[in-house]
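F.,

This is the one I mentioned.
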């Protein structure tokens, strides 16, 4: 499957459950470096804000987003930190 389509699927999944996943978890799942994931997210918007930094000092927020580009429920959600956690969550809903 095309990496762009894989990331779009993951974004729809995260949005539907209102949970976050780190750039690293998503990158590991689709075979990209964490920094490469951003290239497939499109413009900064609430829909794409569910993929976040793994840095707790940045409160597990998406990199470079303004407040109006972040989903209002983002800060209340859990964070899937690893590819194993992300895969387990996807399998649970499949």
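My design for it:
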């Amino acid at each position: 499957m095309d990496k762009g389509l894989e990331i779009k699927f993951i974004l729809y999944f995260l949005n539907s459950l209102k949970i976050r996943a780190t750039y690293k978890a998503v990158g590991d799942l689709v075979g990209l470096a964490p920094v490469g994931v951003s290239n497939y997210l499109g413009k900064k918007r609430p829909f794409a804000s569910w993929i976040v930094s793994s840095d707790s000092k940045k409160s597990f927020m998406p990199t470079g987003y303004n407040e109006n580009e972040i989903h209002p429920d983002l800060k209340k959600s859990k964070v899937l930190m690893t590819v194993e956690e992300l895969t387990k969550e996807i399998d649970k809903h499949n």
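The CA atoms of residues 52 and 62 lie 4 Å apart.

Talk soon.
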